Amino acid sequence: MPELPEVETVRRGLADLIVGKKVEDVSNDNPKSFPNPDEDVKQFLVGATITGVRRRAKVLMIDLSTAYSLMAHLKMTGQLVFVAPGKDRFGAGHPNDSLVGELPDKSTRVVITFNDNSHLYFNDQRKFGWVRLMPTEEIKNTPFMQKVGPEPLEDSFLPGNLVERLSRKKKSNIKAALLDQTVVAGIGNIYADEALWGAKIHPKRLVGSLTKQELTNLYTEIRAVLNLSIQKGGSTNKNYVNAEGKRGSYMDFARVFRREGQSCSRCQSEIQKIRVAGRGTHVCPHCQVL
DNA sequence: CACTTGACCTGTCCGC
DNA sequence: TGCGGACAGGTCAAGT
Is the CB of A168 under 7 A from strand B? Predict the structure, then answer.
């Protein structure tokens, strides 16, 4: 999915675009993408005003005036795209920014119509993602929110927190540990590879073998990579777009992800693609030794 | 309990 | 061109 930087970019876009709008109509034809019964949608979403947009880990929460929230998880291919009535969402002069054509399209799972005739589309090619309504106060009690790890970009997240969180995963490889949302929230396949390259740690290294210095470097790299990506509007590999349907540019700055066959910017060795924790994984065999 | 693997879906790309 | 298989940014459940 969309990892932390992508979800945060969508959150910021939606906060600017839909807060204050009133929901007039909702349509969804895929129960898996939006499991709440129609009566809940009518009672708690239709007629509600958007009061805010929050993010925790890779989950978006669109808060409503009804004390309910519309939660969204984009998983691998989800998109939340806002379209204003009559606006050119392709962006004049930047035709390549956009990945989405006319909406709705065949990947559209949910359409929310606001009372000014603007629309919010939830598109999801692979149907892994979902939106669902829940009382705002209950979100923090869900199993996921109870066990998810700390937000890595919060000021309160310190190197010691990473060390402490990793301490119960000593026999796991570091890549799998970084992908585990109960260790730290929001890291996925792209930023795990990028941060490990930055810290010069091989993804197959066991957590228990990492030195304090390596863990400190990893902490620094995680924050640097996530912050840079937010600054670049996230990574568009295939499907990801922001709330205006536009791509992010982090992939232009990626050091290893999807750069197999190219030379490492630090040592000129050829970047390799291997398999770790069941995921395609990118490493510099010279900078990151096992 | 810690850790790994398969399943959930659709689409695309690559080799035969 | 067609077809089968592997793979794709995430997370669970079920397995060892």
Answer: yes
